[in-house]
Design brief:
268 residues; nine-stranded parallel β-sheet; alpha/beta; TIM Barrel
């Protein structure tokens, strides 16, 4: 069992959901990212997801696109993201997942990039624009370097394809809660709750189910855990604080993470 799965299972054994926090590595600077991570982990984030900034982020909404642009302007490169990941892991025993588009991986060489990631203590990858049907080389390299391959399922995913995605995934299955791109929303729609209930039987006893896109408040977290998800993925709520870059940023991040984590404990 991978370290990512162990963390989710540990939370579940306590009657809690896991909290996965997403931030863009290098936003506002690579030097500040480990401090931001420290605040989130102290607040209760169980798994840290680091975005690798990319010039054409097709799955991201305006908030994360802007964060990626700030990171690129600050000189953040793929290798610098791996260095940041290692800095964080040297301070915290928390799984780190890199979310990246396939182009940076392909350009550096799949085996080389994933090998470097392992050397830098990364635990797994999410590649939103890599379909499971085209991931043979990537999966082989990930297995070679003992990295989790986290694939995404969407509301439009058929049951037949969902089975294929679940079988190909490790760490957790990333369920996209709604159509569209990332970004904070005011409510969790009934369709999201029904989607979780449809997907959960496919993942039960096989792999943890994590839900992201539009999850930004404690109430959202409580709702999706109550619907059957094992983990909640929150990004834009943290990035909205980071973009202000106020003197109290880290305190705000820690308090927000604490409130979100508490919501996983109160979910019935």
């Amino acid at each position: 069992m991978s370290s990512i799965t162990k963390v989710v299972q540990k939370a579940k054994a306590k009657g809690n959901g896991a909290l996965i926090g997403y931030i863009m590595a290098g936003d506002p600077t690579p030097e500040l990212t480990p401090k931001i991570a420290d605040a989130l982990i102290k607040g209760g984030v169980d798994i840290l997801e680091l975005g690798l900034p990319f010039s054409d982020p097709i799955a991201d909404g305006p908030t994360i696109q802007a964060a990626g642009l700030r990171a690129l302007n600050a000189g953040t490169t793929p290798l610098k993201v791996l260095e940041v990941a290692k800095q964080i892991k040297q301070q915290h025993d928390v799984p780190i997942v890199i979310m990246t588009y396939y182009n940076p991986v392909f350009r550096l060489g799949v085996d080389k990039f994933l090998g470097l990631a392992k050397e830098h203590m990364v635990d797994g990858f999410i590649v939103p624009d890599l379909p499971v049907e085209e991931a043979t080389e990537y999966k082989a390299a990930a297995k070679k370097h003992d990295l989790d391959t986290i694939f995404l399922a969407a509301p439009s995913t058929t049951n037949q394809r969902l089975t294929k995605i679940v079988d190909a995934s490790s760490g957790f299955l990333y369920l996209v809660s709604r159509y569209g791109v990332t970004g904070a929303k005011t409510t969790v729609e009934d369709s999201t709750v029904q989607l979780i209930k449809r997907i959960q039987p496919f993942t039960a006893e096989k792999i943890p189910l994590a839900v992201g896109f539009g999850i930004s408040t404690p109430k959202h977290v409580e709702q999706i855990i109550a619907a059957g998800a094992d983990a909640a993925i929150v990004g834009s709520a943290f990035i909205n604080i980071i973009q202000n870059n106020s003197p109290t940023m880290n305190k705000e991040l820690q308090a927000t993470a604490k409130a979100l984590k508490a919501a996983t404990k109160t979910a019935k």
